[in-house]
Amino acid sequence: MSALPNEAVEPSAPDGPEVEAVAAEAFMRQMVEEYRRPLHRFLTRLLLGQADLAEDLVQETFLRAWRNAEALAADPPKVAPWLYTVARRVAIDAMRARQARPPEVSLPDLNRVPDADDEMDRVVSVHAVRLALGKISPEHRDVLVEMYYRGASVAEAAARLGIPEGTVKSRAYYAVRALHAVIGSTESP
C-alpha cells in the first residue's frame, strides 16, 4: 500500500453557476414569501372572486418570474411592478382563453327529459282507440269502458252492467281482441 502525504485538503470553492443558482433560488423564495398573498388577493379581485383560478395564475406569474430571476434580482425596486403587470396580463390571457372556447355544458339526465314524440304518440293512440271503440259491438265497448276507462274491477263492472262476472271476463277478452283487430286495420296502409 502506498502512503499519501498528510496534506490538508481544502474544500474547493463553488463554481460560478452553482452560486448563481443558489442565489436565484434564495431570491425566488423571498419573492414568493413576500408577494404570494398580495398577488392572490389582486388576482381574485381581478377575476371577480374566482380564488381557484387566481391561485393557478399566481403560480403562472411566479413561473415567469423564475424564468426572469436574474433580471429581476439585478433591479429589486422593479420586482413588484413587474409581478403585478405579469399577473394582470396572465389574467387577461386566461379570460380570453375562456371566452374563445365554448362554455362547458353539462348534459341533462335523459331519463328525466320529456320526449316531444311521446305526447304526439299518445294523442295518435287515443284518437285511434276512440275510432276503434265506435267500430266494435256496444256490449264489448261497455265492458272496456267500465274496466279500462273507469278502472272498475270485474265485480264492479258486473254490478254496474247487470251481467255475471264470468260474462264480464269473457267480453273483456273478446273486446280487446276485437279492438286490436279494428286498430290494426286502421293502421295498415
TrEMBL record:
UniProt entry tagged with the keyword Transcription regulation: yes
Keyword field contains Transcription regulation: yes
Transmembrane intervals: none
Biological-process GO terms, alphabetical: DNA-templated transcription initiation
Source organism superkingdom: Bacteria
Stretches of the chain forming a coiled coil according to its record: none
Swiss-Prot/TrEMBL keywords: DNA-binding, Sigma factor, Transcription, Transcription regulation
All copies of domain RNA polymerase sigma-70 region, residue ranges: 31-99, 132-179
Record GO terms (molecular function): DNA binding; sigma factor activity
Pfam families linked to this entry: Sigma70_r2, Sigma70_r4
InterPro entries documented for this protein: RNA_pol_sigma-70-like, RNA_pol_sigma-70_dom, RNA_pol_sigma70_ECF_CS, RNA_pol_sigma70_r2, RNA_pol_sigma70_r4, RNA_pol_sigma_r2, RNA_pol_sigma_r3/r4-like, WH-like_DNA-bd_sf
PANTHER family, per database record: ECF RNA POLYMERASE SIGMA FACTOR SIGL (PTHR43133:SF52), RNA POLYMERASE ECF-TYPE SIGMA FACTO (PTHR43133)
Homology family: Belongs to the sigma-70 factor family. ECF subfamily.
NCBIfam families the UniProt entry points to: sigma70-ECF (TIGR02937)
Entry protein name: RNA polymerase sigma factor
